[in-house]
Amino acid sequence: MALVESLQQAIDYMENHLLEHITIEAISRQANVSPFHFQRLFMILTDTSVGEYLRHRRLTLAAQELYNSNTKIIDLSYKYGYDTPEAFSKAFRKQHGVSPSEARKGTGKLNAYNRLTIQVNLKGAEPMNYQIVEKEAFHVVGIKKECPCGEQATGIAEFWEQVNSDGTTGKLVELMNSETKGLLGLTDNYNEEKNTIDYWIAVEHIGERPGGLDQLDLPKAKWAVFEVHGPVPTAMPEVWKQIYSEWIPSNGYEIADVPAIEAYTDPEPYRAESSNQIWLAVK
């Protein structure tokens, strides 16, 4: 249960410092995981990014204060972290569907985002097939793309379509010459300012980096390797959620600060019987 408790501690920290400028580094320290893994964990369990949660909560409190006080809109703008009343009004309208002045008059309905409380299912009704693998340092070669996180998380599916259509996947498959098989999807390098991650499509490769491709080095680590059965678009997210909400809280492992891997080992990832893997470094 340590992960659940530390995640709730991080949420409480955010709530206690909503009116301050807080960083993902400071928040993730409360959960004792890296900023990258905290953002990933938070998104999988809550379906929103840390930045979006903070923004939603601040605008929820701003709406309450706007309706229940005579505080000037310009003062509320600065109080809730906006440099100008115009920026505040734009964000306010995006969330609530009305302007701050309309909300003060009682026009329209407001959209409130309540404080999060993490609840984890530990029943373990669905069995999880996994193994623990000790693996020496290795590297992958491929291509990467900066993709947005959270509500605007687009680009990864299009990225796969691109590499499948332009022959890149065929080139990568030819470079597979080690024990980790299949095309690999990795997320790395979370950028708090832009709310983006680097998404890699790669393969494990022994030898020099081929021209035209990037290389990502992964350290020696202990990996929990989970089986994923079913069509990738639905099965992969379901297993990720099960890992974070059930497996980690009920086992003695912590998440290591190493990029996680989705291994697409089945040549037909959309079929009902498709079999693939998730590799999560643990300690």
From TrEMBL:
SMART domains named in the record: AraC_E_bind, HTH_ARAC
Classification via Pfam families: GyrI-like (PF06445), HTH_18 (PF12833)
PANTHER family in the cross-refs: RIGHT ORIGIN-BINDING PROTEIN (PTHR47504)
SUPFAM superfamilies on file: Homeodomain-like (SSF46689), Probable bacterial effector-binding domain (SSF55136)
UniProt name for this protein: AraC family transcriptional regulator
Gene3D superfamilies: Homeodomain-like (1.10.10.60), Regulatory factor, effector binding domain (3.20.80.10)
MF-aspect GO terms: DNA-binding transcription factor activity; sequence-specific DNA binding
Keywords associated with the record: DNA-binding, Transcription, Transcription regulation
InterPro entries the UniProt entry points to: AraC_E-bd, GyrI-like, Homeodomain-like_sf, HTH_AraC, HTH_AraC-typ_CS, MarA-like, Reg_factor_effector_dom_sf, Tscrpt_reg_AraC-type_HTH
Database matches in PROSITE patterns: HTH_ARAC_FAMILY_1, HTH_ARAC_FAMILY_2
Domain HTH araC/xylS-type: 8-106
